[in-house]
């Protein structure tokens, strides 16, 4: 993807040198949906950075001031996307949460996906207990379109039984975005 600049952030592809910053938050992902991305050491982080560097849909969120990678976004490069639809997602280093960085980054990504890439509809899956992510969807003007009960499992309980998640789907159409659906 092209490099995108916002007020406080640079959105760019991952590149060599990002491993330590990525490891800082993927050593212990907090959202169950990202548990499978957990990294054990820096060598794994370096391999993950190499993979992301060639993934068109993978975006590093960097602080303009320091260059530090503080999180990532994805969207717009899935193989299974149809009818101008793309899934989107976000993951911040918790140290940088609560400062509006995720919103600033996602807003710029949405603009890119709708205006430059020409997507018609963007959607996000969000677990029913993930209120920060639900709030972000709503600030972006996304509509909660449904809740899938016991939709997916990312972990097992102590007895080895899957813990199923109730998963919401949020979405927004290009025409809604263009007419200023974002809440901020
Ligand atoms: C979901 C996630 C990206 C949300 O991050 P976030 O920092 O809460 O989101 P935002 O960027 O919208 O920031 C919002 C907060 O910043 C505050 N803020 C502070 N300064 C701000 C500024 N300059 N501009 C805007 N908001 C600002 C807002 O008031 C808001 O606070 P509140 O949460 O107390 O209402 C983050 O929690 C995360 O990465 N979670 C783990 C991964 C995850 O769950 N991913 C989604 C899976 S579906």
UniProtKB/TrEMBL annotation:
Residues 9-169 form the N-acetyltransferase domain. It comes from Sphingosinicella microcystinivorans. SUPFAM superfamilies: Acyl-CoA N-acyltransferases (Nat). Transmembrane segments: none annotated. GO terms for molecular function: acyltransferase activity, transferring groups other than amino-acyl groups. This is N-acetyltransferase GCN5. Pfam families: Acetyltransf_3.
């Amino acid at each position: 993807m092209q490099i995108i600049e916002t007020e406080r952030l640079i959105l760019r592809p991952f590149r060599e040198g990002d491993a330590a910053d990525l490891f800082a938050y993927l050593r212990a992902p907090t959202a169950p949906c990202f548990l499978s991305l957990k990294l054990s050491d820096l060598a794994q982080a370096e391999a993950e950075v190499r993979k992301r560097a060639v993934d068109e849909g993978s975006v590093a969120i960097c602080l303009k001031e320091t260059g530090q990678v503080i999180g990532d976004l994805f969207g717009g490069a899935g193989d299974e996307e149809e009818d101008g639809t793309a899934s989107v997602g976000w993951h911040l280093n918790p140290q940088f949460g609560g400062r509006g960085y995720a919103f600033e980054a996602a807003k710029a990504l949405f603009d890119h996906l709708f205006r430059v890439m020409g997507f018609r509809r963007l959607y996000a899956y969000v677990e029913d207990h993930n209120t920060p992510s639900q709030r972000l969807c709503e600030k972006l003007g996304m509509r909660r379109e449904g809740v899938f009960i016991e939709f997916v499992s990312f972990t097992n309980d102590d007895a080895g039984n899957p813990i199923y998640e109730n998963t919401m789907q949020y979405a927004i159409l290009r025409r809604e975005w263009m007419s200023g659906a974002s809440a901020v």
